[in-house]
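User: Could you walk me through two proteins back to back? I'd like the raw sequence and the structure tokens for each, with a short line separating them so I can tell where one ends and the next begins.

Assistant: Of course. Protein one, sequence then structure:
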Amino acid sequence: MATLKEPLPVEKTSGGGWRPVARWAAPLAVGVAIALAPVPEGLTPNAWRYFALFAAAMVGIMTEPLPPAAVGLAGVAVAAALRLVRPSTAESASWALSGFANSTVWLIFAAYMFAMGYSKTGLGKRIALLLIRAMGKRTLGLGYAVALADLVLAPFMPSNTARSAGTIYPVLRSIPELYGSLPNDASARKIGSYLLYTALAATCITSSMFTTSVAPNLLAVSIISKTINVTISWTDWFVGFAPVGILLFAVVPLLLYIIYPPEIKESPDAPRWAGEQLRTMGPVTHKEWTLLVLVIAALSLWIGGRLYIDATLAAILVVVLMVISRVVSWDDVLGNAQAWNVLAWFATLVTLASGLAEVKFVDWLAQALAPQFAGRSVTVSIALLVGAFFFIHYLFASLTAHTSALLPVFLGVAVQIPGVSPMAWALLLSYTLGLMGILTPYATGPSPIYYGSGYIPGKDFWILGLILGVLFFAVYITIGVPWLRWLGI
């Protein structure tokens, strides 16, 4: 497989001039072409126009004629102004702002605050130096260490945003700069790009391995029980996915090391250097201890307190305690432009995706697939139906939204296809929920944080997402389906 090359430098315009016309032309052309096409049977004109606007916004996010957050905000504003989703002005305004009430959006924001705390106190640097001292001789070893950290936490944390973005990212973010690998710079590829994308890929794999590793899995189990009266236990879920999950987990850090290689492969002197840096830093400071206690408190609430407090509320509570204890100041919170930018971006994407469900476009699309399976073999039907469920996630900015909008419809279509048990169909569809998070920069909670880190250029993110998305799906179909059949499910 060919190695991705360094992205070409982008020429900056002075004085805030217009961006290249092609960046504007592509989303406008897509939106206009869809809007002028005949409205498909079964859809309202408003639903079709909304899809045209949604498609234009997604292309705009890829080509970036404006920053992604601005593109998303423009899409929401236009849809609300034209009342494409809800009929009245007040209801349209309520819909337009609904993404800012999404819990995952604020959990992402809190994760940025955690990362800032690690940076300001020096705790992130200290932990990073400890990791380098223990495993820093080879970059590949660090990649596997990051993946293992996610795997250890996954069974106990039903939020990959809390796990990867809130716990692993703040520590991981401190490592590249110690090697001279800086964000938004040619040096990003030294080591930072590889480590951060490996962390994202790992959390997408672990998110499919356990029912408790991401909230949409638990939602899926509930929907399955109510929709087709099938009960899935924690053990059923884990055993059914184990061969796929273990294989992907073992292979992906190495695969990324080959196709998206770090420039720094080995650093035999790194452990000794890290030890010297730790001695220079001196003993752990009061603020570091305070942050460590708060982080452990957040972990405890995420793992053991989910019956009593929502993961997002727990994270926000810890951020407030960080301010009270002066780990960070309120001015630090207000001044973190990157965090507020990601909050606005992800909130608008969640809103845009919810609009597809509200105008019944998602229902129409899923139901239109049903006739495609008539007369096909079981293997082909599985590949087509599960493939559609998986790759339609390009239209979604939330695993939860995808699960709630599509899973009931796809289950209804699936159980009508003979030769596969309802339990098998339920598992075949549900297992993809974590894996599909790799597809886009907005596909799952941690994605915007890694995308916004400055280490993974947008072009690389989309290409790697497609490569790993196809790989995940191919391994899943070729190994997962025969495994479930062998189990007799």
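----
Protein two, same layout:
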Amino acid sequence: MTITEKIIEQLEGVGIQTDFCNGSHTLDATVDETRVVCELSALGSLGCAFEHLTVESSKLADATGERVQEIGAALSKQLTYLLEPIAVIEADAEEGMVQLRSEPPHRVEDSRSYYELLVRRGGELRLQRFCKTNGVARRAVPASVTREVFLRLVGDLVAAVE
């Protein structure tokens, strides 16, 4: 069974009647050396909202800074189906980290919403959505996507570490 199939099975187990008023629901699936962890904050028949989507893999434990940069660049070209396109904002080959963000972010009056994807040597990819209002520190907000987009994200992030 693939990680995506395990996630589908867990989504079906949660069901759309689950009460998220008291917190989130964790999806957690592992196959071989790769693990997917997601904190769901809402689930409906057509879509879901998540606090973060994280892929961990020991396959990248010894990845070079160059390899991490390649993964970031490839994901910026592949994840074209999000609300905004993402682009590499910062790459640190020495630290083995790449930061990608929505480019451009979604703007409404004095606030901006954007995806942030961190790719780290050691084997972690973490996708979150943030909102930044002028004069106020940024805060994490749920990312709302269709189930189809969610499963595609899981598949694409897992494939990136293979």
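The helical segments are 3-14, 65-78, 147-161.

Let me know if you want the two compared in more detail.
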